Predict the structure of NADPH-dependent 2,4-dienoyl-CoA reductase.
Amino acid sequence: MPFPHLLKPLNLGFSQLKNRVVMGSMHTSLEETEQGFIKVAQFYKERAEGGVGLIITGGISPNDSGIVAPNRAIMQQESDVKDHQLITDAVHEYDCKICMQILHAGRYAYHINQVAPSDIQAPISPYSPRTLLSEEVEQQIDDFVHSAVLAKQAGYDGVEIMGSEGYLINQFIVEATNKRDDEWGGCFENRIRFALAIVKKIRAAVGDKFILIFRLSLIDLIEQGSSANEVIELAKRLEQASVNIINTGIGWHESRVPTIASNVPAGFFTSLSANIKRYIDIPVITSNRINTPELGEKIIQEGKADLISMARPFLADSQFVNKAMNNKANEINTCIACNQGCLDKIFIRETATCLVNPRACNETKLNFSKADVIKELAVVGAGPAGMAFAKYAAKRGHKVTLFEANSKLGGQFNLAGQVPGKREYLQTIRYFTTRLPQLGVDIRLNHVVQAEDLHAFDEVIIATGVKARVPDIEGIEWAIEQGKLVSYEDVLLKRKTIGNHVAIIGGGGIGFDVALFLANDADKVVESVTVNQALEKREFIEEWGIDLSLSQAGGLAEKSCRRATRQITMLQRRLRKPGTDLGKTTGWIHRQHLKHKQVKMTVGVSYEKIDEQGLHISVRGKPRLLAVDHIINCTGQLEENSLVSQLSDKPCHVLGGAKSAKGLDAERAIAEAALLAQSI
């Protein structure tokens, strides 16, 4: 059997998990939509059918004060049970266990009624919490217990108590947020009293044959967080209190250390779960930046954890486990940790989905049934939109021919995959390269399509993407001829040797990608994969100031980032913070990384001319000369859809960047492709 450690059953005594794969908790906002529990039941059902051993739901509040935001799901009344039974009934059609996560947001709640152990406002919240009175603390405990009892009535196999990521229980545990002087604060024994009381009372109320998971913060990544000894001692006490499984929590949401973004090395935090396993006998779940069965297998085989928690990978591919089990890991649609379709949407109060899988959280409305009329379809352009349309249309039975002018599939993803922290974008290309031939798609590479090539097809889909916009600057043509002005494509594909003094014109996503590429010397020769991975982890620790040993409470250490070997200046016309349009949950990371690398960012720039001296600009009316070796053009893109005007004899559809280059992103392009394939 492939992946024998990952797919091995786990016996809990009164219950057995069929494998070691956990679909970790993530909120999708489906519950808050119309007929939301029907939708979320289908969402979990498909993952259960896909082979996962244990599902942990998104956080459900035990009371009104604990909701993360207004109108979020609560398990508080008997009437709530019926909704949740839709979920448990759906999951239990398969050999899959499901636990409801009980989450009280505390001072992280995005509403005026938030409560906390102390009235210390969170830096990520506009609201200030009210300090809980002693008797109110007791009521909060009772609400947790009542919620767990209702969860059992609803058919859940257990509950996970959310004690990490800086939510209410975690706020009681650490000194940073607990300044109480009663029995719930002060010494460590008092600060963990709240967590242990919840666990003990839940166990007493639900009995022994009910899975009890505690999500423990193994590293807070904040000042005055838990020390190593405190984490270990709490884990021991939780085991004594009859917790069945310890789950891994990493970092508080307010921490300025990346924990799940794509720049976090794969499996980076597994040493923390490995350490906890030395002190307790109950199973330990590890988590964060694990997205392949190969990595999950290695972690368990090496004894670093007993179970592997993956959340976003199950957005990307509901059939993750079945594919691994059937020795088809190469067919897994890998999560690229972009956060665009999931976390970024949740933060703006939209329903989550997935960049590489638009069906995620759309299971009840985006389906690809057999087409009534089978058509011959030509897809011109094999970037994200073209590849996605070809896949979905072929699934519906259409005969699809995919034309690509270049020698391989992928389009702009081939460029993105060169950027440090975005290498997993190449996994999406690997997925389509594997999957499209299996679906019978006729792939024609190195083929520049002419209108006459398309006569035999019933309909044509134009997915030819974008071309770089050339800015109107005096001397631009001279600069191009002299090789002084270089396109972002030439940089990322290493077609040009770039000098040590560089100006990047354009402060959008492409400008940031190029700056990251050059600041990290990604155009230089790299070491072997093993050496490179070790170097990547060491540099990540040094740059973000992480102490995995927790020798300092909270796990923070002194930062030490190697500055860029080049002098890089990013220029932006608009008078606003660079990277404003970057992802809400990842943009701050890119900005901070470039700051660490000492990349200069200048806004309010007017471009005057380019000559032998360099790039002449003015900044808020003041002239300046940048004597640079190269100027990288990242000033935006234009639609490449010239073929459309030559096609008038048949239906022609335009997708992705070819349709609109403004605000272009792969999530939009792939979603457009899926919707068109569903209807054609």
In short: Residues 470-521+564-635 form a domain with the FAD/NAD(P)-binding domain fold (CATH 3.50.50.60). The chain has three domains: 10-347, 376-467+639-679, 470-521+564-635. The longest helix spans residues 134-153.
